[in-house]
Design a protein that fits this description.
The protein has about 120 residues and is mainly beta. The chain has strands spanning about 5, 10-15, 20-25, 35-40, 45-50, 55-60, 65-70, 75-80, 90-95, 110-115, 115-120. β4 (about 35-40) and β5 (about 45-50) form a beta hairpin.
């Protein structure tokens, strides 16, 4: 069983930066593919970025070049550095972990989810 807890959300002006974190429990964290998803009001949840156990990363086109995912396996933590934020980045951001071996873009593939952290970007 894996428990995920996000933190670091908040309010930021357009063009600003924010880093959110996802702390995971469980001794096998290092082998889990991890991902960030987000859900804006009235919209479906969408994929943001994932990272494999080996560090391979895949970004959604909408955040490529602005967001950076990283993982610190000894600390059981995944980070999402968000730069050049836009109002359309406003959403609840969710961390997810998958017990399989491959990082995917589909939320249905992920077995464990955090409670979410709100990110609001003002114009």
């Amino acid at each position: 069983q894996v428990q995920l807890v996000e933190s670091g959300g908040g309010l930021v002006q357009a063009g600003g930066s924010l880093r959110i974190s996802c702390a995971a429990s469980g001794r096998t964290f290092s082998v889990y593919p991890m991902a960030w998803f987000r859900q804006a009001p009235g919209k479906e949840r969408e994929f943001v970025v994932n990272i494999s156990w080996s560090g391979t990363k895949i970004y959604a086109d909408s955040v490529k070049g602005r967001f950076t995912i990283s993982r610190d396996n000894p600390k059981n933590t995944v980070y999402l550095q968000m730069d050049s934020l836009k109002p359309e980045d406003t959403a609840v951001y969710y961390c997810a972990a998958r017990s399989g071996t491959i990082a995917t873009r589909k939320g249905i593939d992920y077995d464990y989810w955090g409670q979410g952290t709100q990110v609001t970007v003002s114009s």
